Amino acid sequence: MPWLELDSIFHMQNWTPRPEAEFRAEVERFTAADGWVVDGNYSAALDLVWSRADAVVWFDLPRRTVMRRLAVRTLRRMVTGAELWNGNKESFRFLFNKDESILYWAWTRHASDSERFRRAAADPANARLTFVRVASRDDFDRALRLLTDKI
Fold it and tell me: Of 46, 85, 110, 149, whose Cβ has the fewest other Cβ atoms within 10 Å?
């Protein structure tokens, strides 16, 4: 199934954000297909993605797990100079600037994002969507079986 990582179309060269209209057009084009997977939860395109989706898989791991995994992954990318999207690489300077730090962003957004998805899953307006909350490895295994059965 085609897969789109929203970061890959949002972050243009030099971490320049793609203009919202262009970003939405790319998401709209991609989600017009019969089957697809979108990775990401950008509010600028959430309405497009969710209006065309049949399931939302929501990783709601404990903050300590998220931060540990994110720190290891981020530091590894910084040390190796791994390219992410469109020539962009994570930089050690990002660690010390709260406006650019993925670690700061994840720490401050963890609770609010969790609550936002809980509310969305309970909202009758989203009743046609299957929300799959992944809060552990066992949840992940169950979700994988559930989603594989849907394909």
Answer: 149
